[in-house]
């Protein structure tokens, strides 16, 4: 069966995005820093990652 295993979302503001997903939506992560280079969330079945889009330039 085909399925999505990882979703990587490029964000312009890592600190603001992390606060939204972790603090507002309640996504669980072991990340303690407020502005990490990348963050992974503990989601069932599909991994969810935030990555700063500025690193792509």
Q: What is the CATH topology descriptor?
A: 2,3-Dihydroxybiphenyl 1,2-Dioxygenase, domain 1
> Can you tell me the overall shape?
globular
Mean pLDDT: 88
* Strands, count: 3
Strand content: 25-35%
CATH superfamily: 2,3-Dihydroxybiphenyl 1,2-Dioxygenase, domain 1
Unreliable parts = none
Helix content: 10-25%
Structural commentary:
With 57 residues, the protein is α+β, with helices and mostly antiparallel strands. The chain has a single domain, classed as 2,3-Dihydroxybiphenyl 1,2-Dioxygenase, domain 1, CATH 3.10.180. The chain has 1 helix and 3 strands, in the order E-H-E-E. A 3-stranded mixed sheet has the order 1-3-2, covered by helices on one side.
SSE order and pairing:
Layout: E1 6-11, H1 14-24, E2 39-41, E3 47-52
Parallel strand pairs: 1-3
Antiparallel strand pairs: 2-3
Write a brief caption for the model.
The chain has 57 residues and is α+β, with helices and mostly antiparallel strands. It has one helix and three strands.
Summarize this structure as a short list of keywords or feature phrases.
57 residues, alpha+beta, 2,3-Dihydroxybiphenyl 1,2-Dioxygenase, domain 1, 1 helix, 3 strands, 19% helix
């Amino acid at each position: 069966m085909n399925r999505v295993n990882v979703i990587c979302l490029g964000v312009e503001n890592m600190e603001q995005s992390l606060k939204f997903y972790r603090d507002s939506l309640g996504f669980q992560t072991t990340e303690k820093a407020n502005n990490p280079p990348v963050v992974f969330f503990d989601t069932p079945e599909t991994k969810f990652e935030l990555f700063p889009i500025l690193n792509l330039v």
